[in-house]
Each structure stands twice: as structure tokens, then as C-alpha cells.
Amino acid sequence: MAKLYVFGIGGTGARTIKSLTMLLAAGVESNYEIIPILIDPDKSAADVNRTKKILNDYKIIQEKSNQSKKSLFFKNKIGTLGNVVNTKHGNTMDNDNFVMNIPGIEGGRFKDFIDYSNLDPTNQVLTDLLFSKDNLDLDLEVGFKGNPNIGSVVLNGFTNSQFYQYFADVFEPDDRIFIISSIFGGTGSAGFPLLLKNLRTGMIGGKHYNHIKNAVIGAITVQPYFKLETDSSSVIDSHGFNAKAKAALHYYHNNITGNKSINALYYIGDNGDNLYKNKEGGTEQKNDAHFIELASALSIIDFAHNQNLQTTDGIAVEPSYLEFGIKNNLSTISFKDLSDKTNFLIKESLTRFFYFNIFCKDKLRDNLDKPFASDGAHKIDQNFLNQPYYYTLSDFFKSFRIWLGELQRNNISFSPFLVEFKTDSSGINVEDIKDINSTNIFALVNGVEEKKTSLLKMFSDKNYDFFINELNKAHKKSNDSYTSIESRLIELFSEGTEQILKQKLF
Prior knowledge:
CATH architecture of the largest domain: 3-Layer(aba) Sandwich
Helix content: 40-55%
CATH class of the largest domain: Alpha Beta
Number of helices: 19
Largest sheet: 6 strands, parallel
InterPro entries: Tubulin/FtsZ_GTPase_sf (IPR036525)
Number of domains: 2
Organism: Algoriella xinjiangensis
Protein name: Tubulin/FtsZ family, GTPase domain
């Protein structure tokens, strides 16, 4: 299978890849093996580390359970660059955690990175004109703090790294590249044009890679969609986001769209009314998932499905420039407010995965004696639920619920399901959905009414009883042809939730 290398630059890149992973888990197809590569100088950034955890969990689940074409969930392969390298060249690459390391920034300030103290006096004066004292003293381990001028200098070096050389050595002619970046900060706005420029030269490590030069490359440039609280102690000021975005767009017009170096460029943004805490980096920089990031993830799916893109001698042939829009511009949106195309892509997949999630969370352990779990070989029993695989799946489900809760409470609010999330003592939503056992679970899809049925059937097929009946039917239909317990679980819920959607919802 051809590979789609997705470079997620900075916090927005990491969060967009997180949304992409949720879509793939739910069954949205890309038709490529996805190889995420996170680029962020801040190694301790919470957003990056949360995405790494979700990617690793997905990879474990996919490898153990996707052994059947009947599976709707986790069927799209996600790999690491290290896995690709080691498969092709033997065990030559140690880094296998989705992150591209940036050489030379460990434990140093920007002035140390450029070897300021060893510059001759003339060059020191020139450097002082280009960079402020705060710029020169910037601790690179917490990122570029909204300074693309610093980011462009530092990130220009990652194309000389061993990691980037590994990427070049395994890239195949049918593979593709997609780049996610924001346009109003430091890491993304600096990293995107530099990465694209280096890819289009085709020169890496002194060798010429013509198939990289002529690769089909897409990107999404995310314009401002949030503001930061004013903090006099922080060097990051969101009042400058729009000005930075305008300057970057002008540069892109001349150096990206103007020279046709990109095959498909997607634009997205919002009015930025939602306010985030002003955290400059590290473990405290953990922003809520936002609908803009989910929509940005959909641009990757759209790019993967577009087979009409071509490149000749490093120039995109008939490049595409696209924007994202919704049907109803409201403060809270659900499936019905999306465009028909977006609705078609995600509504059924996310709904199936939602029902898979809530059943495993609330009901699976109490129903292990039912035929869907207990009959035949590869039984779903208590021992299986105590195995590492199921713990990993449960962790992923928890991440999915956190993601839904963050999307729901953000501004704009994306609320596809009518569920309440528990709150902590400060009133902040946490991952667990409030008890829904007394609720009609088929009335939980926002804007969708349960299909009408006969009075007798309405009383006999209520809530989880109906769900269990469909799982039992799915098991009987399978003829016990599972290859493992993991595949049994995924296949049963693929078929069971599919029938729920057909009979109860859509």
C-alpha cells in the first residue's frame, strides 16, 4: 500500500493529527497507510504527547484486530517512519515514536544555536539588528513562542538531520506528502514553507531524489481560530495573530501558490472568539480539541481521495486551492449543520464508533454470558478484558470521550451527540460521560430522531436489549469464523452498530 506522510507542525499540527486518528478509528478511509510525523521543538508539549499516546494506542489496536475485511473500525493502517525504515533496511532506526527530532536545540538558547559568542563583531552587530535580546535569549526547548523569524533559522536545519535522511531513503514514487501548520505562530508558519521548499529541490544529504521533487504534496494552512488570555509575563500576544497571518499569506502568494509548488492547498480559520490560557509551552500547553482541527483532518482525507493531482519537474499541474465551509454558522453545530459532503464522510462512522464506545464502557462486562461473547471459539471473557489489548482499547475509548467533550465545550461547539460529561470540582469537563442507562440511547444523536416502529417492537427492542440482540445476530451470521478474540470483538461491533444505524437512526 502506498503511504501518505503527514507532517504535523507545532501544536495545531499535533491536534489535527489527533482528530485524524479519531476519524480513522471510526472507519473513515484514506486509502493510504498513514505515517504521521510530528515536528515540534517543545518535547514536553502536552498536546504533542497526548497525540503520541493516541497514535501508539491506535497502532497496537490496529495490528492486533484488523485481520478481517468485515472490520469497520481501526482498518486504516497507521505506521511510524521507524517501522517503514526497519522493514525496508533492517533495524537501522531507533526513533519509532512519531516525532522528528530537531538537532541542536537541546538545553540551549537561540544565541547558542547560532553560535553567537563566536561570531566576529560585524556579524554580531548584524545579528543584533535582526533579533532582539529576548529573541537571542529564547529557550528553544519550549518552542519559538510565536517568532517565525527564529523558527525559520532553527527549522532550516532539520532537513540535514538523520531522521529526514531516513524519510528520503524510504519514500516511494506512489507515496504522498501532506503538511499541517498554523499561519499565526512560530513553528508552523516557519516550518511549512521551509519543508516544502526543501522537498521541491529533491536534494537531501547530497543525493538527488527526483521522486520526492515530483511528489504530490498537499497542505492546510490554519488561520487564527483562538485567542490567548493577556499575560504581561508572556512574550506571546494573540493581538498579533491576524497581522502575522496576513504577512504569511502574502509570502505564500509569492513563494508557494505563485510558483505552483503545492498540488492542493487548503485554507481554514474562524473568528477566534474562544479564549485559551496563555501557556508558552511544556506540560501546561494543553489546548482543547477544536472543530477547526477536525475540519483540517478532513482536508487530509479529501487530499488522499483526489487522484487527479500531478507534478512535473517540481511544478504542480493544475493545483487546487480549497476552503472549508459549513451549512449553518451557529455557535453550537451538529451533523445537520455540516455540508452534505462532510456529513456523508463522518456522520455514520462517528456514530457507529460512539455506540461501540458506550457499550464497551457501560455494558460489556455485565453481558459476557450472552451468545455474542460466550458461544463458540475465541470467547470474549473476563480474562480477555484483563489483557493489555483491551486496556489499550479502553484507553483509546477514553481519549475519544475526552476529544468529544473538548469539542463540545469549545467555541464553536461541535456537539454531535446529546450526552453530558462529568465535571471536576472546578466545573471543567472530564472524560467520563454521565450515566445514560436510564436514557433512550437511540435518541443521543443530535438532530436525529429514532425511527418509528410498531408498538410491540418498540417495547421489546429498547436501549441496550436491542443492542445485545443485534450483537447476538451478528455472531450467528459470522458462523464463528473469527481468527482471534480481538477480531471477534471488532467484527461483532462493526456489524452490530451497522444494524443499529440502519434500523434505528439513518
